[in-house]
Design brief:
There is one protein chain. The protein has one domain. 76% of the residues lie in helices and 0% in strands. It has 13 helices and no strands. α4 packs across α9. The longest helix is centred in the last third of the chain and has 33 residues. The protein is globular.
Length: 307
C-alpha cells in the first residue's frame, strides 16, 4: 500500500491571515450595525456600559495569561490615560453619529483616520513625511470635504461629532504608536475600561431596562467586538502586514450592505465619491510608509541603500 501523500491543498499561513482579517472586518461591520440598531432604543452610555462589561469578562483570561502585574507597571502612565480618553471619545462619537447618519456615511468619515495620522506624525511623532505623502494627505482632505458636503437630509451636528470622533481615533492611533512596549492585551484592557467608566457615568442619566432579547444583543455586541480584535491580532501574526492592512477598506462595502439590509440606508453619491478619494489617498500613504520601513530596515542591516 502506498503511503498517503501530504495534501498540496493545505492553506498557507499568509492566505489564512488574509481570510482571518476579512473575517475581522466583517465582525467590526456587524458590531457597528448592531450598535446602530441598539442606540435607536438605548442611550450611548448604556450601550457602552453593557458592551464593556461583557468585553472585559472575555478579556480577563487573556489578561491573566499576560500577567496582571502588567497593569501596574505600564510605560508612560500619562500617555496611557490620554489614549484612554481618545479611545473613549472615539467610540462615544461613533455610536452617537450612527444614530443620526447612515452607517456607510459614518464609516467613510472613519476611513479618513490614516490621513489624519499621517498629517499628525511629523509634529507628534517626529516622523519624516516626503512630498508624495504630503500630496496624498492633501488628496485625502479633498475626499473628506467631498464626503462631508452637506445636504438637506444630513444633520450638521452629527457630521461635527463624526469629525471629532475620527480625530480622536487618529490621536488614539498616534499615542498607540508611542506605546509600543505595552502589550496589546493591556492596551485593549485600558481601552475597554475607559468605555466602561464612561458608561457607568452616562448610563443612569437615561436608563431603559433592556428586554431579554436586547440584553442578549447588548452582550453579543461586546463578544463580537472582542472577537474582531482577536482576529486582527491573529491575522497580523499569520500574514505580513502589507497583505492584510489594506483589507480594512472592506469595511465600507459591508457598511453599505448592512446599512441597506437593516436600516434601508443608501449612501449619498458624494459620500461614495469622497470615500473613493479617501481610500486612494490612504492606500498611497500606506504604500509609501511600507516602502520607508523596508528602506529603513535595509539601511539598518547594511544590505541595501535607501531609494
Amino acid at each position: 500500500m502506498t503511503a498517503a501523500k501530504p495534501s498540496t491543498a493545505a492553506m498557507s499561513p499568509a492566505r489564512m491571515g488574509v481570510l482571518v482579517m476579512l473575517l475581522a472586518m466583517f465582525l467590526f461591520s456587524l458590531n457597528d450595525a448592531m450598535g446602530k440598531w441598539l442606540v435607536a432604543t438605548y442611550s450611548v452610555g448604556q450601550v457602552l456600559l453593557l458592551r464593556s462589561v461583557v468585553a472585559l469578562v472575555i478579556l480577563l483570561p487573556f489578561m491573566w495569561k499576560t500577567g496582571l502585574s502588567a497593569l501596574r507597571n505600564v510605560e508612560r502612565p500619562g500617555l496611557q490615560l490620554a489614549r484612554v480618553v481618545f479611545s473613549t471619545a472615539e467610540v462615544f462619537c461613533f455610536y452617537w453619529a450612527v444614530y443620526f447618519l447612515p452607517l456607510a456615511d459614518v464609516m467613510t468619515y472613519w476611513l479618513a483616520a490614516p490621513i489624519y495620522v499621517a498629517a499628525m506624525s511629523p509634529f507628534l511623532l517626529k516622523e519624516k513625511v516626503g512630498p508624495i505623502r504630503w500630496a496624498a494627505i492633501g488628496l485625502g482632505f479633498v475626499g473628506v470635504l467631498v464626503a462631508l458636503t452637506p445636504s438637506g437630509e444630513v444633520n450638521p451636528l452629527a457630521i461635527l461629532v463624526s469629525i471629532i470622533g475620527t480625530l480622536a481615533f487618529a490621536l488614539m492611533v498616534v499615542t498607540g504608536r508611542t506605546l509600543r512596549g505595552t502589550p496589546d492585551t493591556v492596551l485593549v484592557f485600558f481601552q475597554i475600561a475607559g468605555a466602561l467608566v464612561a458608561g457607568i457615568v452616562l448610563a443612569p442619566l437615561s436608563w431603559v431596562t433592556p428586554t431579554v432579547p436586547d440584553f442578549l444583543l447588548l452582550g453579543t455586541l461586546g463578544v463580537v467586538a472582542m472577537l474582531a480584535h482577536i482576529c486582527v491580532n491573529r491575522a497580523v501574526k499569520l500574514a505580513d502586514a502589507a497583505a492584510v492592512a489594506p483589507l480594512q477598506y472592506t469595511l465600507l462595502p459591508w457598511a453599505i450592505i448592512l446599512g441597506y439590509l437593516f436600516f434601508g440606508d443608501l449612501p449619498r453619491p458624494l459620500t461614495l465619491i469622497g470615500a473613493a478619494i479617501i481610500i486612494t489617498s490612504s492606500f498611497i500613504i500606506y504604500l509609501r510608509e511600507t516602502r520607508a520601513r523596508r528602506a529603513a530596515a535595509l539601511s539598518t542591516s547594511g544590505s541595501g541603500e535607501i531609494s
